[in-house]
């Protein structure tokens, strides 16, 4: 898994953000963490996953995920996704999140 340089984080994780990033880089489990990643299917832009489920062999062997956001709950992940969309529209004038997060 790759962590994006444009990583978004929910407010509830700001104090633990660096510690969480280190655990992700070491492929260690993190309790109560949801991640926003690039989508497996090319018709979708992003997906929300419970982080610890990302260790399933099917997901890790066949696909490289980039993490664009981290949140403590699924509701916070949706709020973070909304923030990403709003930032994308402000900066680019469209909703192409893949290109927005790459730059």
Question: Any chance you could write out the topology, listing elements then pairs?
Answer:
Elements: E1 2-9, H1 17-25, E2 34-38, E3 46-50, H2 57-62, E4 66-71, H3 74-92, H4 97-102
Describe the fold and architecture.
By secondary structure, this protein is of the alpha+beta class. The chain has one domain. Helices cover 39% and strands 23% of the residues. The chain is built from 4 helices and 4 strands, in the order E-H-E-E-H-E-H-H. It has helices at 17-25, 57-62, 74-92, 97-102, and strands at residues 2-9, 34-38, 46-50, 66-71. A 4-stranded mixed beta sheet has the order 1-4-2-3, with helices on both faces. Strand 2 (34-38) and strand 3 form a beta hairpin. The chain starts with a strand and ends with a helix.
How would you concisely characterize the structure shown here?
The chain has 103 residues and is an alpha+beta fold. The chain is 39% helix and 23% strand.
Task: Using brief descriptors, characterize the structure shown.
alpha+beta, 103 residues, four-stranded mixed beta sheet, globular, 4 strands, 39% helix
Order of helical and strand elements? EHEEHEHH
Helix content: 25-40%
The percent range for strand residues is 15-25%
Class from secondary-structure proportions = alpha+beta
How is the largest sheet built, in terms of strand order?
A: 1-4-2-3
Low-confidence stretches: none
**Radius of gyration, in angstroms, nearest whole number:** 13 Å
């Amino acid at each position: 898994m790759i962590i994006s340089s444009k990583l978004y984080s929910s407010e509830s994780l700001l104090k633990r953000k660096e510690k969480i990033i280190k655990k992700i880089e070491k492929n260690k489990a993190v309790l109560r963490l949801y991640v926003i990643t690039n989508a497996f299917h090319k018709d979708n832009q992003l997906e929300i996953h419970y982080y610890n489920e990302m260790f399933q062999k099917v997901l890790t062997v066949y696909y490289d995920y980039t993490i664009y956001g981290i949140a403590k709950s699924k509701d916070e992940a949706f709020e973070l996704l909304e923030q990403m969309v709003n930032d994308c529209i402000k900066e680019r004038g469209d909703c192409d999140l893949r290109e927005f997060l790459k730059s």
